[in-house]
Amino acid sequence: MGNLLNLLFGDPTNPVSEIKTIFSQHDNPLAAAQDWAKKLLQDKDIDPMKSPLAAIKEVRTEEKAFNLKSATYLVEKLTK
User: Fold this and answer.
1) Is the dihedral of CA 45, 49, 55, 59 positive or negative?
2) In three state form, how does the secondary structure of the chain look?
3) What span, in angstroms and rounded, lies between the C-alpha atoms of 54 and 10?
4) What is the pLDDT of residues 33-64, one digit of tens each?
5) How far is Cα 10 from Cα 5, in angstroms, rounded to an integer?
6) Residues 6+ apart with CB under 8 A from 60
7) Quick one: pLDDT band at residue 3, thresholds 50, 70, 90?
8) Average pLDDT, rounded, for the chain
9) Which residues of 31-70 are buried (b: 16+ CB within 10 A; e: fewer)?
10) Whether the predicted pLDDT of 30 surpasses 80
11) Which DSSP symbol is given to 13?
């Protein structure tokens, strides 16, 4: 039922909170997440500006804890 509600009303999770949880062992979880994702995508030769969907997919493949909303948020931060 939860997935149906998410489809109807959107995912209520806060991507910043999710990222802070995933990278909680770091002093600055958001910066650590951005550094990790940037290095990951560079190593895989994926440009998040040119291929945002491929970047999101790779982030989620490499770190299973990311949901779609959090991975999208992280990749968008890399493109700004």
Assistant:
1) positive
2) CHHHHHHHHCCCCCHHHHHHHHCCCCCCHHHHHHHHHHHHHHHCCCCCCCCHHHHHHHHHHHCCCCCHHHHHHHHHHHCC
3) 22
4) 999 999 999 999 999 999 999 999 999 999 99
5) 7
6) 66, 68, 71
7) low
8) 92
9) ebbbebbeebbeeeebebeeebeebbebbbeebeebeebb
10) yes
11) -
- Residue type at position 51: S
For the record, the structure tokens of 66 come out as: 């990311």
Reading the block at residue 8, the tokens are 């109807």
User: How far, in Å, are 1, 8, 15, 45, 47 from residue 22 at the CA level?
Assistant: 25, 26, 10, 24, 23
Q: What angle do CA 60, 71, 73 make, to 5 degrees?
A: 170
Record the tokens describing residue 23, joined without a space.
């990278």
What is the length of the chain? 80
Query: Could you tell me the two tokens for 24?
Result: 């909680």
